[in-house]
Amino acid sequence: xxxxxxxxxxxxxxxxxxxxxxxxxxxxxxxxxxxxxxxxxxxxxxxxxxxxxxxxxxxxxxxxxxxxxxxxxxxxxxxxxxxxxxxxxxxxxxxxxxxxxxxxxxxxxxxxxxxxxxxxxxxxxxxxxxxxxxxxxxxxxxxxxxxxxxxxxxxxxxxxxxxxxxxxxxxxxxxxxxxxxxxxxxxxxxxxxxxxxxxxxxxxxxxxxxxxxxxxxxxxxxxxxxxxxxxxxxxxxxxxxxxxxxxxxxxxxxxxxxxxxxxxxxxxxxxxxxxxxxxxxxxxxxxxxxxxxxxxxxxxxxxxxxxxxxxxxxxxxxxxxxxxxxxxxxxxxxxxxxxxxxxxxxxxxxxxxxxxxxxxxxxxxxxxxxxxxxxxxxxxxxxxxxxxxxxxxxxxxxxxxxxxxxxxxxxxxxxxxxxxxxxxxxxxxxxxxxxxxxxxxxxxxxxxxxxxxxxxxxxxxxxxxxxxxxxxxxxxxxxxxxxxxxxxxxxxxxxxxxxxxxxxxxxxxxxxxxxxxxxxxxxxxxxxxxxxxxxxxxxxxxxxxxxxxxxxxxxxxxxxxxxxxxxxxxxxxxxxxxxxxxxxxxxxxxxxxxxxxxxxxxxxxxxxxxxxxxxxxxxxxxxxxxxxxxxxxxxxxxxxxxxxxxxxxxxxxxxxxxxxxxxxxxxxxxxxxxxxxxxxxxxxxxxxxxxxxxxxxxxxxxxxxxxxxxxxxxxxxx
Length: 718
Hints:
By secondary structure, the protein is of the alpha/beta class.
């Protein structure tokens, strides 16, 4: 253990020189997503999808992060950010950066719209409809839109209507025909149950926006009136949950009330179309009680997240080429028996290149197997019609002891999780909700069987959610083992969550909030000691976010001691790499590509040249953020089986470090530069699509070690 009598030189730097602002780092991440939408080497509709993702990301950023900062300001909280800014200062910077980002989104949309037109895909303005198209649209409007619209006059007898989060509405100033009555204000909310775009009949893809359709046939809503002025606006609400009542008799019922209250969160942002009439804007601002500085009047499309609808309407010719998702050969070798395959040797599955169906099969087999006596399962996020939940229900109906830890505080999935919990409780699943003050974010499933008169356990640890849909889009790892100590640790962890009784010691598992922070800093300090002793010292880590100040400072210390630190951080990174005297041995890259990088992998050289069979390798559910260390239940799992160890370190982690095609390298000032583009650039995603299964019988392993290591060294020298 290294001890210091005085702060290292890096720790003497002012906060703004040591750390990148968290919110600005997130905005930089979303700018990289938007850059993918402008990449001409990516298929056109995939670029459109990246634009939609960047818009949805920005919505969530406002709903959660900006809403939180505004709440701090409202309550007079002046806690400084990691780089020393007050909430008020952060909000000022965010407004400027957000406006610039929205301008770039609009520019990107203009480009994409022109390219879509070249492919005969058009969003048609109402004024450009032919007579035939207008007649068809009129019939569609009367049958499918008109019955669900609610036009509302705005006067003392008709209060301003409630609009849901991310809701859009048209607001009109109307004049009665043939009378001298005063003009009337009216509003028509766009129902969230309707699609944003209406497809016109024909083989070619022609769509009309819902708001244009409503404005076109407004006379059906307001007969006897004509429009003096109109505009469209869209709102964003504070969508964070406030759970404070630790003593609630029924936590689930208390949580249900909180979810309902969130629907009426404060409006924190309103966007109008450019040129919106000032009187109509003022009416909305007053009724929504939104600060003037959070009102945007901008050109371009509103609610670009809905562009995903166009992506779904078109065929595959303008999308990524489909690929064959592989099923683990090892399980096939054992006739589909997951337990026999796991008992033979630990298995690692790399999603989405290898199917998530194996996780579902593991639980379905457990549900149907007479030898299985119990199943314990965490659920953070899952799909609407989750096969995981169905397998747990079937197991309970078959008389097995089933425990499901349902995390109600999984943001934006709370209502779905409440529903799943009710469904499982009805059939006898023991449903628990963990801790009020902690989110249970660990991903694990524990199955216990009776074999030869004894009980034997099998456990699945994941880096991602038990969600079959996102498993097709996210890169994650599933690790199956029957290692007795890991299974026992998993049982201890479940008992800790259900019974609040912390075990005295976990043998192998590293768990937050008990030991994760201490263990990570200890692993970093071991590398520092190795470097000072003249031994090889390196840290390779892959995560979604790096925010924790204590860990960042430990990495700075490691860099100054000579430890080579290679970080793959997809999103937020508050560490400044490459700063002389502070972080010159640290390199940070972000991978933005076909799949969302989601797996967390942590590798420590342990005194041996990397990659090494002696390196300490861990996978887990936790990023290096204060919330993961201190406010969540997390699990970091050691990878000790030699085959799995080599697969994770020498294939998966190595390919991520060597990726050029999808990589952005972080500069000391916090901005990112594209590493290399073009058809000859190495892509980790393409490599795993085209190479044999990791969890097969070793095929493909030698190739990545020999031919790709040279490429990695070349990139390092560059």
